[in-house]
Specification:
It comes from Alicyclobacillus cycloheptanicus. The chain is an alpha/beta fold. The chain has helices at residues 21-32, 42-50, 65-84, 100-104, 118-124, 169-182, 195-209, 221-224, 249-258, 262-265; strands at residues 10-11, 51-52, 89-93, 111-116, 134-138, 156-160, 186-193, 231-237, 268-274.
Length: 275
């Protein structure tokens, strides 16, 4: 990794799917600059301001409304879980430079683990430090050994925001099985894309980052069949999340219209499972 450049900002060098973390960081930082911010993510804007990177490359993603709504819905689910389970563990998989731990600010009784590739965690350490109740784990989430470092004695909330799409279905199934075997009970929240969304965004994603979406889900019942342990308790199109009501009028109209057509409505679904 490069250090600070001539501007005083920090240079970073990430590859393929690792680079996509900058797209979500950019979306959350832009939201924070809006008069009616949804996430109020000061930390995301702070981090973006310290990085020397041409974020304008991601202008083709618009202002990132979809990513902001996705994050807000997941934040709400995590917050609800922690209210019910104040002694819980949180696993944030493929955390990137996500600032969820700052947005939610969990009580000291919660053990929070942010997990990502070693290269990503090295970048993350510039902005976060391990402390009591918060630990960064440097590992691919598909590796088999990292989970053994996580205590098993608490209910767990697993968050996988914008990450499972980069795995194969077999890798997703293996990950689900390891998690449900390791923890006695908990909840898991994640998003999936349908094949229409994967096809539509394939070329631009490849050109911008070199990354590729591998797992497409056209029927959420297919996910149910991946694990006998997991039970689906929520299934929300991102375009029908209640948090779209906080968007400017033109986007509320646009997303409302898109949600009338199955291919568009199911482009991104937000799911919660329990076991």
């Amino acid at each position: 990794m490069d250090s600070a450049g001539t501007t005083g900002k920090q240079k970073i060098q990430l590859e393929r799917e690792q680079q996509t973390l900058l797209i979500t960081l950019y979306a959350k930082a832009l939201d924070n600059q809006q008069q009616r911010s949804i996430l109020h993510d000061d930390k995301a804007e702070e981090i973006m301001g310290q990085l020397e990177y041409p974020f304008e490359r991601f202008s083709s993603y618009g202002n990132g409304n979809v990513m902001v709504v996705r994050a807000k819905q997941m934040d709400a689910w995590v917050s609800d879980f922690l209210k019910a389970h104040p002694l819980a563990t949180v696993l944030n998989l493929g955390c990137g430079l996500d600032t969820r731990v700052s947005r939610i600010n969990p009580p000291a009784s919660v053990e929070w683990f942010d997990v990502d590739y070693p290269e990503v965690i090295e970048v993350r350490k510039r902005f976060y430090a391990n402390r009591a109740g918060y630990t960064m784990v440097a590992s691919s989430i598909t590796a088999s050994d990292w989970l053994q470092r996580i205590p098993q004695n608490k209910p767990v909330m697993v968050v996988a925001e914008g990450v499972l799409e980069y795995l194969t279905q077999d890798e997703v199934q293996s990950l689900f099985r390891r998690i449900t075997h390791h923890f006695e009970h908990g909840q898991m929240v994640f998003d999936v894309m349908n094949s229409f969304a994967v096809r539509t965004g394939k070329a631009s994603l490849k050109a911008l980052t070199g990354a590729e979406h591998k797992w497409a889900v056209d029927n959420t019942e297919d996910i149910d069949r991946l694990s006998e342990t997991l039970q689906r308790v929520a299934d929300v199109s991102v375009f029908r999340s209640k948090y779209t009501r906080q968007l400017p009028f033109k986007y509320r109209v646009l997303y409302g219209a898109m949600s009338l057509f199955p291919n568009f409505r199911d482009m991104i679904r937000l799911l919660m499972y329990k076991w």
